[in-house]
Amino acid sequence: MKKEISRDLLLDGIPYVLKDNISTHNIYTTASSRMLQDYLPLYDAHVVQLLKQSGACLIGKASMDELGMGSTNMTALTGPVYNPWDIRRIAGGSSGGCAAIVASGLVPFAIGSDTGDSIRRPAGFCGIVGMKPTWGRISRYGLIPYATSLDTLGAMTRSVKDMAIVLEKIAGHDQHDMTSSRVEVPQYKQCLSLDISNLKIAVIRNVYERLEDTRIKDIFKSCVSLLKKSGATIYEIDFPENYLQVLYPVYHIIANGEATSHHACLDGIKYGFQDKGKTIEELIVNTRTHGFHPHTKQRFILGALALKQENQNKMFRKAQKVRRLIVEEVQKIFRDYDIIIVPNGEGIAPLVDEAQDLSHTIVDDFLIMANLAGIPSLTLPCGFVDGMPVAIGIMGRCFDEQTVLNCAYALE
Ligand code: GLN
Fold first, then answer.
1. What is the ipTM of this complex?
2. Is 139 designated active site?
3. 276, part of any domain
4. For the chain, what is the domain count?
5. Is residue 94 part of a domain?
6. DSSP string covering 292-356
7. Reduced to 3 states, what is the DSSP secondary structure of residue 114?
8. What range defines the domain where residue 395 resides?
9. CATH number for 349
10. How far apart are CA 310 and CA 337, in angstroms?
């Protein structure tokens, strides 16, 4: 008699790694911070539970920028992560360890988190697929937060099909995260389709035209031609210039403001590493002074400034209002178009020595849009410049991950 196989075995026995800000029962979860270097969670994050159920095997926790703050992975307690394509270059961050491990072929997938670009930036630098789904699509239960109104868990894989398989396993409602959505999770892999002939794709002209490297611009244009050849209709549109200019400051005020509030508990008394002090105040000051990377402390200073009572209206609340206006603009685009495409960033992975001051251009900043608006966004490798991978960013409507995946599948 034939034996019934009751569950799909696509991930059974498949090894994977987790970014080290995702809680694992009795396995250190440090968020690459000295402050949490001895933290042993008492429970598994929801994604970890789901992956366990599907038979996937966790083989390690991967380095990241401290608490997820950064794009370079240079602030990790364990030092930088090198790019497998050229070890003189960075893997990017903050999910840099995950990206390097997947890109070097050690595991077929990793789970990271993305608050501004942290799955998609390193995925682009390392030539792999990275996806941040809709905010609320995946439970954040067990994720050490960076900024909860922007944080999204997501996957990093070497193909779009693998992305569809993993996403299907980790998406869905969870009673432990009241912001996780009840919107039904489609069968992403089964619904993958190369037919994109009915898609209306918006190319953001005033973003891609800013690309200074003509080689990257040419790769981007050839992706657009390929989508056109596959039957999609391409429209060139401009995003309001005044909003593009403020994307980065708006994001930083909100992200660092939220982070400052979330991490006020890391004081050596309630949680984490503890330094010495004659008084409680001195102990907290010494703990936070020595427990965090200088870059992280800068973020807390900015966050505290924005949250200070006398500044709240002119900084934090103002940033929230501008965020709303930007989101309305994105929603307007999705009334007419199904997909937005942009370059994944300005350039290839920088050299380690030059990575401390990663430049921020409007082309780089556009990825943040997906977090401000909560929309799904996928990074797809699409060419090479100087032997290093270059990628394209594909964004879709809220909860329409399928169309984003299909568009990437057609382009892959
Ligand atoms: N690079 C952005 C920052 O440093 C986003 C990081 C992230 O997505 N976690 O805030």
1. 0.97
2. no
3. no
4. 1
5. yes
6. S-HHHHHHHHHHHHHHSGGGTIIIIIHHHHHHHHHHHHHHHHHHH-SEEEEES-SSSPPBGGG-T
7. strand
8. 15-184+344-411
9. 3.90.1300.10
10. 41
Which residue type occupies 126?
Answer: C
Give the number of the atom of ligand 1 that is nearest the alpha carbon of residue 118: 8
C-alpha span between 270 and 363 (Å, rounded):
40
For residue 50, CA distances in Å to 29, 46, 139 come to 18, 6, 10
Q: How far is CA 345 from the centre of its chain?
A: 14
pLDDT tens-place string over residues 32-78: 999 999 999 999 999 999 999 999 999 999 999 999 999 999 999 99
How is residue 88 written in tokens? Answer: 């003189």
Ligand 1 near 71 CB (within 6 A): yes
Q: What are the tens digits of pLDDT across the range 324-363?
A: 999 999 999 999 999 999 999 999 999 999 887 666 799 9
Residue 299 lies in a domain: no
Tell me whether strands 377-385 and 388-396 are parallel, antiparallel or unpaired: antiparallel
* 261 has catalytic annotation: no
Active-site position among 32, 94, 113, 181: 94
d(CA 156, CA 154): 7
In Å, what is the CA distance from 196 to each residue of 133, 199, 207, 216, 234? 20, 5, 24, 24, 11
Q: Which atom of ligand 1 is nearest to the CA of 256?
A: 10
Q: Rounded to 5 degrees, what angle do the CA atoms 406, 396, 214 make?
A: 85
Q: SS3 breakdown of the chain: % helix, strand, coil, rounded to 5?
A: 40, 15, 45
**Degrees to nearest 5, angle at CA 31 with 28 and 33:** 100
Q: For residue 349, tell me if it sits in a domain.
A: yes
